[in-house]
Amino acid sequence: MLSGDPHTTLEDRIARKVASPGYREWRAKVTATNGCAVPVRLFGAWQLHDATTRKVLAHHGGEIMVPCGNRRSAVCPSCSDRYAADAYHLMHAGLAGGSKGVPTTVTDKPRAFATLTAPSFGPVHNRFTTDNGKIRPCTGCGEYHHQADPRVGAAVDPGTYDYEGSVLWQANAGALWHRFRIALNRELANAAGLKVREFAQHARLSYAKVAEYQRRGLVHFHAVVRVDGPDGPTDRTPAWVTSELLDTCIKAATASVKLTVPRPDGVALDLRWGSQVDVRPIRANQAHEVEDDNGSISETRLAAYVAKYATKTTGKTDGTDRPIRSQLCIDHAKVSDHHRRIIQTAWDLGGLPQYEDLKLRRWAHMLGFRGHFLSKSKHYSTTFKSIRDERRAFRHTETLERLGLEADSVLVINDWAYQGNGYDTDAERELAAALAGRIRDNRRRKYEQETHQ
Prior knowledge:
About 35% of the residues lie in helices and about 20% in strands.
């Protein structure tokens, strides 16, 4: 991408772009993407043909921009907002029901919000506060860290920190979750006096989880866990499953999970969940408050939390969102020393034949984590694809209504060719970011007005 004329200031280049003859058309294209930071540029045409005569009824051609669709807020705030909105609807449907084919009776089912963490691989700098907000000294170095201190989350002694073990844990976090699900089924079956293979005849475990990076560079999983009847959310849950039983079984299953993998020298490494396991009950919507006295959390706020987690990356300042292609990329990456050590370890381990299946070099920029950031069981609620298909169908219907046409009477013809990504100059990037901010502010203001009526 071009940065513009080096002999003029950015303000001058922005003013020149705004005064250019094609600015209004360019602005309309950017607005159509909600100010996407890295839009995909396509050239071609869209047409509506009469299904019988093949006559062209509507035509739009030339260069267009479509959103990049990146879920990460550090890459594209606009597209991450859309992803977060879709994640909210996906999560909320499984929590409160009443939409996406999920009945409202799910609010009466046993369910819990569980957070599973990574174990310790060595002391890290930390920043804790008391209940009244007073900062406590770091347990690693004894200092009082500012909230933005880059040392928070970093190893106190990099020489003894187990970077190798942390990367192998991170790369196998998805397998640990899979074993946790199996263990939870087993714990619930044992509590009912059932054999594990009989559990599916009586109940079904439904869940949706999101991965969130901690400051130390390791993920923990936030999961909504719900117990349905054997046929899913529309089926009554067995009476012997209670929220208290689910809480107990989640903690027992977390403690029982173990996965053994070899280190590079052949020594066995036992991978487990961290000792900090938080399980909270979920209550029916009370959107005006976040938690009540027993730590329970409302459906609406919980769905919003999970949607926010789903757009986070490895850290606001400590991670990289671009794939690592070579050692040179690692040497010059704008990351903290701690995260650079994790990336370097993932890169080095990825070059060993015994870890080929983990594809660590491909996921080195994600600190070794190679799982989905938001995943769900089949019967929890709807899917991202269904939500996006509904949105496309709505826009298609809206277009046909505006043209006075019937869906059965037309054929949609798309013929587009890829032209590139992003904007041509720094002035265009600045203007697009300003438009995105304005759109986001207007959306937030409209939401606040609607919620306060």
